Amino acid sequence: MRLIILxxxxxxxxxxxxxxxxxxxxxxPNPFDISTELRIYDLSEDTVSxxxxxxxxxxxxxxxxxxxxxxxxxxTFNADTLPNGVYLVRLNKNGESHGISIFKNQTATSxxxxxxxxxxxxxxPNPTVDVLTISTDINFSEVLLFSNAGKxxxxxxRGSRQLNLQNLERGNYLLHLLTDDRTYIxxxxxx
Length: 191
What we know:
Elements: E1 2-5, E2 8-11, H1 16-22, E3 25-28, E4 35-53, E5 59-78, E6 85-93, E7 96-104, E8 121-124, E9 131-136, E10 142-147, E11 152-156, E12 162-164, E13 171-178, E14 183-190
């Protein structure tokens, strides 16, 4: 799948083979809380540039431009001073653009549930095929569902206690319940 954003092509992985088998750019972990490691694979005396953009198109990190590099490169992206949200990583390799989206959520702990009031939040059935029910006494303002790539795939308003996941692809997702002062995260498996 290709998506044109901010004048470059953003490649969105649709399965694990795209991420692990063919991509030359990855972020681990993703989503992340403060920092993530950007990994560039299979360089062979290539001229590369690496930048990170916010969704307005502003450059928030410029790691290097037009360097000749070989091998595998690991770069730490520290987003401690940046707000939570989606960021676009752009790698230019020999004039060809490659991109991934990354998601910063300072309350997230990678793909593990956030500790605290998790026992007060129940989601079922999980794994699910179509409808996911949220059971909690916590007053949340919004429900967001993100793919493992950090892409927002579903957004629901205040008070929604059931989510229709029927049109989503099989896979693992992160469910975010947002309150005024906190985000609760649960893992969801779509069959």
